[in-house]
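Hi U.,

Before I forget, here's the chain from the pilot set. I'm dumping it here mostly so it's searchable later in email.
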Amino acid sequence: MKEVSATLSNARISPQKLRLVVDQVRGLPVAKAKNLLDFSPKKAAVIVKKLLMSAIANAEHNEGLDVDSLAICRIYVNEAPRFKRVMPRAKGRANRIVKRSSHITLAVAAV
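Structure:
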C-alpha cells in the first residue's frame, strides 16, 4: 500500500478549530472528503481542502496512483509556534493575546 503525504506548516488558525474539520474527513475516500469540505462553512475546511488537493496531485503525478482509489489514511494537526501579543487595558494594565498556529500532515493511500 503506497502512501503519499502533503504537509502544511504554520497555518494561521488554531489547532482546536482545525481538529473539528480534520476529525470529520479522517478515513474517508478523497471524493467524499472533497465534497464534505466544499460545503463546510468553516475557514479550516478551505485550508484542509487545499492540502487534500495537493496530496492528490502528489499521488497522481509523483507516484502514478489512480485518484479514484485514494482515501485519507492519516491526517493530524500539531501545534506550531505561538505569537504573543499585548492588549492594553484600563489603568495601565495589559492582557496577553496568544495567536495560535498549526502544522497539518495529510497522507492518502490507495484502498
